[in-house]
Known about the structure:
By secondary structure, the chain is mainly β. It contains two helices and ten strands. The longest helix has 8 residues, at 38-45.
Amino acid sequence: MVTRIGVISDTHGLLRPEAVDRLKDSDHIIHAGDIGSPEILVELGDFAPVTVVMGNVDTQAWCHQYPKDAVVELGGKSIYVVHDIHDLDLDPKAAGFDIVVTGHSHVPKLEWKAEVWHLNPGSAGRRRFKLPISVASIVIASGEVAFEIKELSV
C-alpha cells in the first residue's frame, strides 16, 4: 500500500492554484501553520483529510480550535507536526516519531537529524524576501519513505 501525504505551510491566507495542483492527489494533507484563512482548510479538506497546527500568526478566534502541535500516524509512520522548530520541546526519536514536520522559516528543508527526518515544506503563501514558493510530499510505501520538495512556478 502507498500513502501520499501533501505538506504545506505558511499560506498566510493565500492558497495558490499551483499548490492545490500539487496536493490534490494526496491521501492526507498536513498544514504546518500560519494558515491565515479558514477557507484554505476547507478547500484542502475537499481533497483529503487535513492535519493542521496553529502558527504564530494564527491569532484569530477561528484558529483556537487547532492545536499548537499534533501527531498523526500515516502509512505506518509517526509524524509530529509543530509550526516552529524552536517550539520542539521533546526528543523526537525518544518519543517514537519517524518524521517531524515544521514551517515558520519559509525555507524549504529536508534534514536527517538524530535519526529522525525533519521536513519544512517552505512557504506556499506570499513570497518573503527572495525565498521560493514551495510545497512538499511524503510518499510511504512498504515502510520506505520518500520526500520531495517542489518549488512552484508562480
